[in-house]
Predict the 3D structure of the following.
Amino acid sequence: MGTARLGRQLRRHAESLTALGVTDVPRAPQPARAGQGLGGAAAGSVEERLARLAREVQTCRRCPLYRTRTHAVVSDGSPRAGLMFIGEAPGRDEDLQGKPFVGAAGQLLTKMVQAMGLRREDVYICNILKDRPPGNRTPLPDEVAACLPFLLEQIAIIRPRVICVLGAVATKALLGDHLAITKVRGQVCEFQGIPVVPTFHPAYLLRNPPAKKFAWIDLKRVKQLLEPGAA
Ligand code: URA
């Protein structure tokens, strides 16, 4: 990506964080230098980098959510995945098991993946927040800002060919606060040169089954983008 485009994207992101009320963004994990420990995130194999990131997430105290977590929830699936799903935050089941999307919404997500002709273990699944907000409330802007560097690191390590963001919170956190899911779904967006397909969150689809037909349109678009030479 050109410097000017990256600059525009960063500026837009900073503006959307400001609009969300975020006043202070914690430092992202530092760029890698060989032999460094945590924070030297680009050194080593994909597996080593993910293991370092997982340790950092599991000991994170960047926002108060660490006080109420049972487990931090980093990811599930393949480090070699071409497709990354990004949800909102762990719920009760995920907090108890330490794995994303294992409750009712997760079961629907697994079915959606299988309907695409893929296996859950072949995709990479993660969330904007790594700790459960009490009572599954909507993540606060400061929590999103504190956790976002982990997601950016996951994207940098996995380098997926396509990202599918699930629901309003993930769409706004990744693409900008000005984007409403109802406006932006149906379009292919972009983050750091990676095509991003926003679709409805599986929990919303459980509450609104008629919206499943739109999610299926989005997933078929994702499938097209995953075809060799498409993205
Ligand atoms: N909802 C999410 O957004 N993420 C999960 O991991 C589970 C439910």
